[in-house]
Amino acid sequence: MADTQTPPSEQTPLIEPATKHDSLTDLSTLRGWGICALMSLLIFIQATNISMMTTAQSEVAADLDAFAEATWFTSTFMIAASSVTPLAGRFAAIFTARLCLVFSSTILAIGLFITAAAPSLAVFLLGRAVTGMGSGGLMSIAIMLILDFTSTRRRGLFIGLISTNYTVGLSSGAVLAGLLTPIIGWRLIFWIQAPAALVLGPLLYFTIPPPDEDHSSLREGTLLQSLARIDYAGALTITISVVLFLTSLASPEVLIWPIPLSLVFLGFFLLIESRWAREPIIPVHLFRNRSVLLSCLAGVGLMMSRWCVVFFSPVYAIAVRGWAPASAGLILVPTNAGFGSGGILVGWLHIRKGGSYYASCLVLFMLFALATMALSILSSEDSAAALFMTATFLNGFFAGALMNYTMSHLLHLTSPHMHYIVSALFTTFRALAGSFGSAVGGGFFTRILKGSLESGFSRHGLSPKPDLVRTLLGSPATVSHLDGIERLVAVQSYEHAFSMLFMAATFLILVAAVFQAGTGWTAGSEDKTDE
């Protein structure tokens, strides 16, 4: 067939005009800001559900008589979210991001309703798991929308805005739960969030424009044909593997038997994805690309260490500083303000075009490690509160900047047509790392704290106090009700547990920096094969 394209002339522009959906300006102003506002509200609800347990934990544990199981309040949510996150990218490619948003927000609302009405611990944890399943793919879908509707020049800024909104939700969740739980109870907080999540999904569906013709080939066919494209075996094996692994390390006592089983199911998953899956959930062949593999591993270390700070800073304020839960939530304000401002500033001032950000990534990793080490040193009752909060701000600032730099550097290292799947994969690993950080970090912290409490009481000649130890593990607010030797032991034990947790996070950051250093300035030669 003859070429019907108009031949170039002196009037032909050197740079072609932006294609459809190249930036938010291609949408109407009202529609573009409507997408931003509605998506921000949905992410806000998701984020508050993570941090609110840090200040509402004591009340929930007392209401459900679940002091020993308090570590599962957040771990259950994060394990469920991390199990679903790998599926989000593939489901969005098959059913469109707008349809997946409706499904995710509906599941999120159902989980919130179950949690609010839970009469027992078992039902409460079920509600937390369903809520986590609903929230699992929201961040991945948000990044996909940015790639669809923003230009390369503005991408860094909008990724920074998404991170800022997420971190505002984290800060607000702890503060609002601390303020409202003593007044209206923890159940009403979930009752308020549930209908909001139920409405936001359909509103986003009608606000986001349908996919253009360039992407329709990904989703052609009937509903049954679309369902047949899902990699059910891969989804099942990766979910079982993640759940077993996190259950083992999140437990107050490390469970050995789930780890080898987790590795077995992981092996099955890799075999299925590489040999038999027509449309794999996680394209295993991408990990032959050195840049993609090492970037994902560096992102895991980055977010695991970051979550240790976010989740446990309010607990430190309650147990060691003696702050009320309402005030303890405020300790997240500086660190999350730093996280948001770090992402926005580098996106606005530095990441204004595609290119390598190799040196910036490595410098920020070192600064991030120093800020986290400072937290380990300052996590005592005698240190200045202003210094601790300054260290949390710097920790958040460097982490937020790294979120933006590492994503932009990975996009530089991969070809443009791989950006959609690579960014979804990268976001998936970061989400998994967040789950690992809160769940595994919670298990590590609980084990250190329990050992310190038992040895502390024994060292001071006190009789074994299993009931008090059990209560202290699930309710940091109990420390303020103690006095004498009991309070001394409790505070010192919490101090030691926090110091060890933040030191472990520092080591993890340094390991992540080594992985990031291995990504290099340019992509490896294997990229062309993957393309």
Automatic annotation (TrEMBL):
Topology in membrane: Multi-pass membrane protein
Domain Major facilitator superfamily (MFS) profile as annotated: residue spans: 35-520
InterPro entries in the record: MFS, MFS_dom, MFS_trans_sf
A GO cellular-component term linked to this record: fungal-type vacuole membrane
Primary residence: membrane
Domain of life: Eukaryota
Keywords, comma-separated and alphabetical: Membrane, Transmembrane, Transmembrane helix
GO molecular function annotations of the record: basic amino acid transmembrane transporter activity
Subcellular location, record wording: Membrane
Transmembrane regions listed in the UniProt entry: 30-50, 70-89, 101-126, 132-150, 157-184, 190-208, 229-249, 255-272, 292-317, 323-349, 356-378, 384-406, 497-515
Keyword Endoplasmic reticulum recorded: no
Stated name of the protein: Major facilitator superfamily (MFS) profile domain-containing protein
Source organism per UniProt: Penicillium frequentans
